[in-house]
Amino acid sequence: MRKELLVLLTLLGLLAASLAQLGFFDLARLERGARNLLEFSRGMVPPDLGILPLAGRALLETLQMAFVGTTLGFLLALPLGILGTRILFPRTVVVPARLLMAGIRTIPSLLWAVLLVIVVGLGPLAGTLALAAYTVGYLGKLYAEFFDGVDPEVIEAVRGAGASRLHLARFVLWPESANSVLSQLLFMFEYNIRVSSILGFVGAGGIGFYMYVYVNSLEYQRLATLLALIFLLVLGMDLASAWLRRRYLLRT
Amino acid sequence: MDHPATVRCEDLWFSYPGQSPVLRGISLQVPEGAFWAIFGPSGAGKTTLMKCLAGLLRPQRGQIALLGHAVNGNGLPGWLRLKVGYIPQQLGLVRGLTALENVLLGSLGRNGGLGSILGAFPKDEVERAREYLALLGIGQKAREKAYRLSGGERQRVAIARTLLQGPRIIFADEFVSDLDLPRATQILTTLRELGQRQRLTFVMNLHEVEVTHQVADQALVLKAGCLVHQGPARELSTADLLAILQ
């Protein structure tokens, strides 16, 4: 009991020290911040609906980036995940596949976008490739874990009937983990929609470019319109994926 | 009848890492077309013996030969693997596939092409798969997903999958344990008849002594990794088994 109390007190101490260091106890600054927030919020109303046609096009581009980036990433993540499956492949295959995925995952999407803007130039192509890259690293790793969780006895039984590795991937790994695989794919799509809305900050296309412009030129009413549209898009996507999960993924 | 031994093992010893031996010097010779039943309490080594014989586990000592081919424990060569069917205790069915699709997995050794990857199996394989399901009394469940089937139905799907593989030997680990006595006897009788027609050899772990009286040739009893009894199956009663295991 005393040990637990000691752990709790240490944690509280660490939290207080970190809060102080990060400026949370600087009351004058916090008060200034609150006033700024109020002013900022006032500046956002009423939202400027005149930019709706422009914002609509940008939003569509954002959605396209997330859709294509997620799809491309998924198509590469699936085979890489299979190659990273310990119950199917020897270490000489599994280790390089997993290292590759870990390497890709280390770099966040925003940094991928910066790198790809340098490589392919400004615009949504760079953003889409950035989303695809991060998706490969993230989904590939998750898929390898899902596949490794498949009952080895099922693999053994089907392998015993003369199935090749490709057969095992198609007839055992896929049907046994399809629910989790598709569920994570949906999650990734939602995540990529959120991320793609800020990739424009680094010139990688989508609605983020306009957000960046409006923030810098202090056009908060226009920014408010963009934020409201992104909110509606994310909300719509959450509802759609919840429906998809209920309809197709919860039946087994 | 003097048939060559289809399954043969001599002085088989096996232990899992860091544990005392699970199998202690097992020797047996199963003739072609025979139907053998192995009994024993939990932990007697029945499953381990089955896995060693099927080439899934490598014994530390002893020799195994299947269809006259020495098995060295590094898995079975491709041609021999197809000749050896193994039905695990948990059956190894793919839950998300239908009964028919699960049975068709038994034909993958013959159908390695692109068609099978896309899920298109040759017509004659599909027909045979349906025939086996019908033979085992679950023809009407062909389109049902495996996770929707009852325990007994799943066991029959696993049998049908193994039969479609076209093996010469079938090792089965307590695979009728979820069936009631009349149903288990019926399934075993069907397998026995099929085995006699196709000269199939069966070696199976079972629980109920009674179900084997009409079908099995030999009954073996394992106790603490040793073979403590071997004799005609019809002469072994539950009381005898209990006495042996005392």
How would you characterize this protein structure?
The complex is a heterodimer of chains A (252) and B (246). Chain A has helices spanning 2-21, 27-44, 52-83, 91-106, 109-120, 124-148, 152-160, 165-196, 208-216, 220-249. Chain A is mainly alpha-helical. In chain A, helix 2 (27-44) packs across helix 10 (220-249) and helix 3 (52-83) runs parallel beside helix 6. The longest helix of chain A has 32 residues, at 52-83. Chain A starts with a helix and ends with a helix. The model of chain A has no long low-confidence stretch (mean pLDDT 91). Chain B has one domain: 3-Layer(aba) Sandwich (Rossmann fold). Helix content of chain B is 32%, strand content 24%. Chain B contains eight helices and ten strands. Chain B has helices spanning 46-53, 78-83, 99-104, 114-117, 123-135, 151-165, 181-198, 238-245; strands spanning 5-14, 23-31, 35-39, 61-66, 69-71, 84-87, 169-173, 201-205, 218-223, 226-232. The relative contact order of chain B is 0.18. The chains are: A mainly alpha (252), B alpha/beta (246). Chains A and B meet through helix 7 and helix 8 of A and helix 2, strand 6 and helix 6 of B.
Task: Please sum up the structure shown.
The complex is a heterodimer of chains A (about 250) and B (about 250). Chain A is mainly alpha-helical and about 250 residues long.
Question: What's the CATH superfamily of chain B, by name?
Answer: P-loop containing nucleotide triphosphate hydrolases
Uncertain segments of chain B are none
Counting DSSP H or I runs of 4 or more residues, the number of helices of chain B is 8
CATH topology of chain A: MetI-like fold
CATH superfamily of chain A: MetI-like
Biggest chain contact:
A-B, 21 and 35 residues
Give keywords.
A: about 250 residues; mainly alpha; MetI-like fold; 10 helices; B: about 250 residues; alpha/beta; Rossmann fold; 6-stranded mixed beta sheet; 8 helices; 10 strands; about 30% helix
Secondary-structure blueprint:
The complex is a heterodimer of chains A (about 250) and B (about 250).
Chain A: H1 2-21, H2 27-44, H3 52-83, H4 91-106, H5 109-120, H6 124-148, H7 152-160, H8 165-196, H9 208-216, H10 220-249
Helix pairs in contact in A: 2-10, 3-6, 3-8, 3-10, 4-6, 5-6, 6-8, 7-8, 8-10, 9-10
Chain B: E1 5-14, E2 23-31, E3 35-39, H1 46-53, E4 61-66, E5 69-71, H2 78-83, E6 84-87, H3 99-104, H4 114-117, H5 123-135, H6 151-165, E7 169-173, H7 181-198, E8 201-205, E9 218-223, E10 226-232, H8 238-245
Parallel strand pairs in B: 3-8, 3-9, 6-7, 7-8
Antiparallel strand pairs in B: 1-2, 1-4, 4-5, 9-10
